[in-house]
């Protein structure tokens, strides 16, 4: 079986890491997997970029700028990503069809990577794993409280629009027309929450949807000795360490840094220190009292494993998450997670068994959860349970097998439809 995994990047961002991990897992299972990306940062020969020369790279950057042009008319829009995906004129679909895979497995394909209408030109059956809300909304990647995707979008709160026939409605209608032509597409929701969203959406509710989470290689993500791990990072041995991290950890409003700061200010234990990855130390001092270690951006699994093993807990205070890999990675390393109990985090963290689920978005309860984990009499049980949860439900070998079953089902169905 020939599988083509398509994502904007190969190792930058959560969707990239997840899709590349799946690609590796499929190769280990003997599946003929290839990965096609817009921007390639690694050196894996099984990953190809369709931008192969300087001119194409410049052209892709110009397309990205042009694709975002319609959004600029909404002066009071929020800072969350909004993708029109209306610019064509690239060779992505042609290259997909030239590869002639049995399955085209789409992941995160925004950043002007593909024009919505071009999806209908893909010849092979499509499986689309959703890493955010964009596929079933009028353009937003994070919908938060908005439920207009259940109808037809318009008057978009992310655009601060008051008009029904706004950009979000026009994008919604383009998707509706295109998706009606994709009879051979199956949608994968990474969490129960986003799977239910898909089933409730106007755009995708008539497509088959299944729930399969991101894979974690538990042979790589596993506990290390705490003292050894802390020595690698030059972290104090005798302190309780709280870890927080993501891409743009302190600047992305969706990652909940503001709420976390409020929670940390409620902690009175002077033996606690704070560790941040995904952001470097800012020029201006951050407004919280705990001693803080800024570790900057991490780019490899070995660094992540040693860091997760060095701390006492991971806090994931996101306002919305499809299925946060920082939580599952930390738990695979035997580190309990404290998070707000909502969206995709409900699939990972089990309250007072593998961590603590605070009431959304109550800073006081988040602080209570941090203190509860740090002072728990059964802390070792929390650590053991956390890893067991990931090994049983998220291990890469298990997830790869689930996808292989789905690939076989889709290709067999497509064969009989011809």
**Multimerization state:** single chain
Structural class: alpha/beta
Number of helices: 12
The number of E-state strands comes to 13
- Spatial order of the strands forming the largest sheet: 3-2-1-4-5-6-7
By CATH reckoning, the class of the largest domain would read Alpha Beta
Biggest pleated-sheet summary: 7 strands, parallel
Which stretches are low in confidence, meaning pLDDT under 50 for 5 or more residues running? Answer: none
CATH architecture of the largest domain: 3-Layer(aba) Sandwich
Write the H/E string, N to C.
EHEEHHEEHEHEHEHEEHEHEEHHH
Categorize the overall geometry.
globular
Number of domain modules:
2
Task: Provide key terms for this protein.
seven-stranded parallel β-sheet; Glycosyltransferase involved in cell wall bisynthesis; single chain; 13 strands; six-stranded parallel β-sheet; alpha/beta; Rossmann fold; globular; 2 domains; glycosyltransferase activity; 34% helix; Glyco_trans_1; 418 residues; transferase
């Amino acid at each position: 079986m020939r599988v083509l995994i398509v994502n904007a990047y190969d190792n930058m961002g959560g969707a990239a890491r997840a899709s590349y991990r799946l690609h590796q897992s499929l190769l280990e299972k003997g599946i003929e997997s290839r990965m096609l990306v817009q921007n390639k940062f690694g050196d894996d020969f099984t990953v190809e970029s369709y931008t192969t020369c300087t001119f194409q790279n410049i052209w892709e950057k110009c397309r990205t700028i042009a694709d975002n042009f319609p959004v600029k008319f909404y002066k009071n829009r929020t800072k969350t990503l909004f993708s029109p995906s209306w610019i064509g004129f690239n060779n992505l679909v042609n290259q997909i069809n030239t590869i002639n895979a049995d399955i085209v497995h789409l992941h995160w394909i925004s950043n002007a990577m593909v024009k919505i209408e071009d999806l209908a030109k893909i010849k092979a059956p499509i499986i689309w794993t959703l890493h955010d809300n964009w596929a079933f909304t009028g353009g937003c990647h994070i919908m938060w409280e908005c439920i207009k995707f259940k109808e037809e979008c318009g008057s978009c709160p992310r655009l601060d629009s008051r008009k029904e026939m706004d950009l979000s409605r026009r994008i919604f209608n383009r998707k509706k027309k295109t998706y009606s032509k994709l009879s051979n597409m199956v949608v994968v929701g990474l969490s129960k929450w986003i799977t239910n969203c898909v089933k409730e959406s106007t755009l995708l509710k008539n497509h088959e949807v299944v729930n399969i989470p991101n894979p974690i290689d538990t042979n790589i993500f596993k506990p290390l000795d705490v003292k050894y791990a802390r020595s690698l990072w030059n972290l104090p041995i005798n302190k309780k360490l709280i870890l927080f991290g993501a891409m743009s950890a302190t600047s992305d409003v969706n990652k909940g840094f503001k709420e976390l700061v409020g929670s940390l200010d409620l902690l009175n234990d002077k033996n606690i220190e704070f560790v941040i990855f995904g952001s470097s130390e800012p020029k201006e001092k951050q407004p919280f009292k705990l001693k803080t270690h800024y570790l900057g951006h991490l780019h490899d699994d070995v660094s992540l494993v040693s860091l997760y093993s060095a701390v006492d807990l991971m806090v994931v205070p996101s306002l919305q998450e499809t299925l946060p890999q920082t939580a599952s990675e930390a738990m695979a390393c035997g580190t309990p997670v404290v998070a707000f109990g909502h969206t995709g985090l409900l699939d990972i963290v089990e309250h007072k068994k593998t961590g603590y689920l605070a009431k959304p978005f109550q800073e006081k309860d988040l602080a209570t959860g941090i203190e509860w984990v740090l002072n728990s009499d059964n802390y070792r049980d929390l650590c053991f349970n956390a890893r067991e949860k990931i090994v049983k439900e998220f291990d890469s070998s298990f997830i790869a097998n689930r996808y292989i079953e789905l690939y076989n089902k889709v290709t067999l169905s497509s064969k009989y439809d011809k």
